[in-house]
Amino acid sequence: MTDQELIDAALQVRKNAYCKYSGFCVGAALIDEQKQLHVGCNVENASYPQGSCAETGAIAAMIAAGGKIIKSIAVTGGYKEADSCTPCGGCRQRINEFSDSETRIIVIDDGGEWHTYSMAELLPASFHLD
Ligand code: THU
């Protein structure tokens, strides 16, 4: 799967985001080490802290399907059009849990262009138990 196809999958799943409280809709699409695609969108809740991020949903889908490592993940979010949405701090830690040195995080940067980051760039000196 190409980066463009992964981006298209993130844009597509973003259309299903349940974001009625913030109005900020997010889509995430990832490819695992078995080359399987998993997607997720944010799912908000009237009890605000119970909402979940798009990356969280995509990671849960990967784990449920037996995937182990995120090879690439594309994330996009915005109020109307898809725009810049770098993963929040919590999601950086979640992605980190299932990353390796080659994991790529693909997002729209402040200039409006798709940009690829490494895990180390987004979460330097990360917390590990091992
Ligand atoms: N959100 C995500 O889905 N992923 C992120 O990395 C950042 C934030 C969602 C949470 C909430 O539903 C909305 O965006 C506004 O914060």
Summarize this structure as a short list of keywords or feature phrases.
five-stranded mixed β-sheet; alpha+beta; Cytidine Deaminase, domain 2; 4 helices; binds tetrahydrodeoxyuridine; 130 residues; 28% helix
SSE topology sketch:
Layout: H1 3-14, E1 25-32, E2 37-41, H2 54-65, E3 70-78, H3 89-97, E4 104-108, E5 114-118, H4 119-122
Parallel strand pairs: 3-4
Antiparallel strand pairs: 1-2, 1-3, 4-5
Residues 19, 22, 24, 26, 42, 44, 51, 53-55, 77, 85, 87-88, 91 line the site of tetrahydrodeoxyuridine.
Brief characterization of the structure:
This protein is of the alpha+beta class.
Description of the structure:
It is a single chain. The protein has a single domain, classed as Cytidine Deaminase, domain 2 (3-Layer(aba) Sandwich), CATH 3.40.140. The model has no long low-confidence stretch (mean pLDDT 96). It has 130 residues and is of the alpha+beta class. Helix content is 28%, strand content 25%. The termini are far apart. The chain has helices at 3-14, 54-65, 89-97, 119-122, and strands spanning 25-32, 37-41, 70-78, 104-108, 114-118. Strand 4 (104-108) and strand 5 (114-118) form a beta hairpin. The chain is globular. It has a five-stranded mixed β-sheet. It is built from four helices and five strands; from the N terminus they run H-E-E-H-E-H-E-E-H. The structure holds tetrahydrodeoxyuridine. Tetrahydrodeoxyuridine binds at residues 19, 22, 24, 26, 42, 44, 51, 53-55, 77, 85, 87-88, 91.
